[in-house]
Amino acid sequence: MKRKQVIIIGSIALIALIIAVYQSLTLFNNKDNERKENLIAFFVDGEPQTGNDFPTNKEFSHVRCYVDGEYRENITGTWENNSLEINGFTSKTDCNVYFVSLLRDRIIEDNGGIAAIINRGIPDYATVPTNTTPETNGTGSGLFATRGSIPGWTDTNTGLFAGTRAAHEHATQESFYFRGHNDRVHNHVQFAGFWWRVIRIEGNGNIRLIYNGTVAANPTQPPLTGAGTNFAISAFNSYDGNNMITGFRHGTSCTSYATCHANIAPSIILGTTTDMGSLNWWYLTNIQNRGTAITSKIATNAIFCSDRNLYLGTGIGTTHTNYGYQNRLLDNKRPSLQCINRTGHVPGNHDQFGISGNGNGTLTYPIGLITSDEVALAGAVVYINNPELWLRNETDFWTMTPTWFASQPQYLYLVGSTVNTHGSFGHFRRNSRIGLRPVISLHPNVLITQGNGTRDNPFIVN
Q1: Under DSSP, is residue 26 helix (H, G, I), strand (E, B) or coil?
Q2: pTM of the predicted structure, to 2 decimals
């Protein structure tokens, strides 16, 4: 039986040995503690290292070994103080070793760490973020939870802000979201052949992404703007003459709030797996059919909020109705990540869209759209243009959030919230055909092999 081998590489005591061994790119074989002729390469940020660039701290939190291009799960690396212990080698292991990081950890560390992020305070959501370095102005919240009035913190800066936790995310740690000017938001990600941008790190550690184009169309760097940053052009629904079609899914009759907003039929934008151009079709084609190498990185417990709380009106039939968007974002500038239906007519998780066992359990796949509250957290303000907003792609595209149903003598129509071409909120009729940008969440344990999130050096998911 082969004896288990362990390599312990100390950042101080063995630094001379590290340089001597790895400058020559030869394998240090543990069986007889001799250097062999079998070549080995160490990759940091995706680049082979031959000198003293060998990692000596926890910036790279994981080690992955590939033998003939195949990942070997049994070979693992862990940090103990300032030493890296690699376990699982056998007597003849030759492999390329990649030093990799958790995407979540890299984002937080690159933005100053948890304490510094929390100290940036609560932004002023009524003003557009400026292109400045984040400054400390008090402890506060970035992932804002609905709890009445916002404390009097003001922060007009840009960067990554920490916040309270959305209850439905069953948080065990802090939550974070990107906000502000494109030049200072480093949230570009490459995953599954597509470009994405990180919206936020959820309270449960999931990393929420919004679609930003294909790598095939933009092979050298991710795009910032243009039609290619949308997956498709789509109506939210083909009909907009009734409160019934407000949500991501909707009822088939509208005699009461519960029947009108029942989660029975999919909206046009959600569709089914056979509706080409819909979110379900996109997920099946580009994620589900790609196998476990891709699907294992998706957070299946993700919740997508299609808020149908009432502000004014009943939400029934053709009654003029203003939904919660007007209260939170139009009148009071108070974005919230809590997704609890408080109408009393349906369960509290009625608007929490997730797959079976999560939220209302009505989704086929864990995919949705960005919410208006996430757009506000990103730095958009109703009726104020923000051309440098990182989320702006110079097109109009849908959010999951309804705004109001207008009932006038001469017309009836339902309006949904969008992000417009000027980096602010738009308001489009539900049967309007505009941009569709899928949103997914990655699992908290997703690793990256390189990158710092900038456009020139995006995060590359392992």
Answers
A1: strand
A2: 0.82
